[in-house]
Amino acid sequence: MERQLNVPPHSIEAEQGVLGGLLLDNRAWDLVADKVHPEDFYRNDHRQIFGAILELADRGEPFDIVTVSEVLEGKSGWGGLAYVAELAKNTPSVANIVAYAKIVSERAHLRRLISIGFEMSRQAYEPGADVAL
């Protein structure tokens, strides 16, 4: 019998759709700003790229391939200018960005629930664990 690895819930495609959509059209920021946060992204490079977009949006500055890459310059693990350009190129439009943001948020919520469950289980194995609920 083959053992199946449990991969945390995520959707790389939805994450790419959110990031690419924002790079294509800054007006889409208002559609997703309150729906997703950097920590909602599963991939570290996506968290960093979204964080750069958030930083630029907070400053009222435009975010695109060049400005996001400038913010991330000197940091490691974000994929580089070529990856940011690929995100924009591979996203056909921002039409579904709200749906993509919802997927990213929901998967992040599931990962948080899994983490809480693991922590509860770990604590239950501790000697002298408090069994009062």
Automatic annotation (TrEMBL):
One Pfam family named in its UniProt record: DnaB
A single MF term (Gene Ontology): ATP binding
Hydrolase among keywords: yes
UniProt key word ATP-binding: yes
Protein name: Replicative DNA helicase
Gene Ontology process terms (BP): DNA replication, synthesis of primer
Species in which this protein is naturally found: Pseudomonas aeruginosa
Domain of life: Bacteria
InterPro entries in alphabetical order: DNA_heli_DnaB-like_N_sf (IPR036185), DNA_helicase_DnaB-like_N (IPR007693), DNA_helicase_N/primase_C (IPR016136)
A GO-annotated cellular component: cytosol
Keywords tagged on the record: ATP-binding, DNA replication, DNA-binding, Helicase, Hydrolase, Nucleotide-binding, Primosome
Residue stretches making up the DNA helicase DnaB-like N-terminal domain: 8-106
Gene3D superfamilies linked to this entry: DNAb Helicase, Chain A
